Amino acid sequence: MSDAITHRTEREDFQATSDPAVLASADIGQANLLSYPQLYRLWERQQWATQDLDFTQDREDWWGFPEDERYQRMYGLSSFFIGEQRVADELGPIMRAAPDEEMRIFLCTQIADEARHVEFFNRFYEEVGVLDSGSLPDRLTETSDHLSPNFHVLFDEMLHSRVDRLGANPDDLETLVEAITLYHMVIEGMLALTGQHFIISYNEENGTLPGFVEGFNNVARDEHRHVAFGARFLRDMAERDGRYRDAIQRTLVECGPAADGVLAPPWYEEGMEVFGVSLEETRAFAMKALERRLKVIGLAPVA
Question: Does some domain include residue 208?
């Protein structure tokens, strides 16, 4: 593990989130998870603005990459751009279904964060010239063509169906537990944060896309805070009733194949490295993060 990677995960602002994945103590199931009001106050302290980022050097770097590298980079970012938009849309019913006002207040901050993440990618794509499209809706449509089929399974089938159920019946706590397991533990915790980790590290080590790296670090910090909420919520629910523990584990088993499929791009070939790491290293990182979180929630790792 490079010094740059270690330095980022050990940064005070990342550690402050209490996401078990960045805490070595989580290996033995110990983490001082923040309360919902503490997570809200941390959100107030960790503000940033997309308009403050400078993508001038990023544009020069991007158009200096070989065409095939630009394609691979664009593909690697597509699921993030669309994913931020998808989860922003899905959070409303999840927020309304949360059984406690302090939970709902924090989830309102996450909706604002996800909207800011969409704008971050939109600005980067626009100012760097990643796509031909000239507006946010058109960029989202063009970017959608580069998504893995497993992405659609996770977002448009598994998550969306549960969010629809919550919209119709916001008192269905078991479905809420399933939705937050999918959203916070898998989509954000395993997939998004793993991809961010290696994409940021690759650009840091190669000295490329400095504006993007600055913004993506902020996005990652936001998402560690979101996942910390998910860990707190799922631990509280698992302690409340055994059926919620079962719901967490059942959901993780159900979504496992699709989640693993998202980690491997369609053009992946055995032995290939993506953003400087092998698929095995990517999987190991994602599973280690999940294992730490599950231990803190009080559950055994999923086989």
Answer: yes
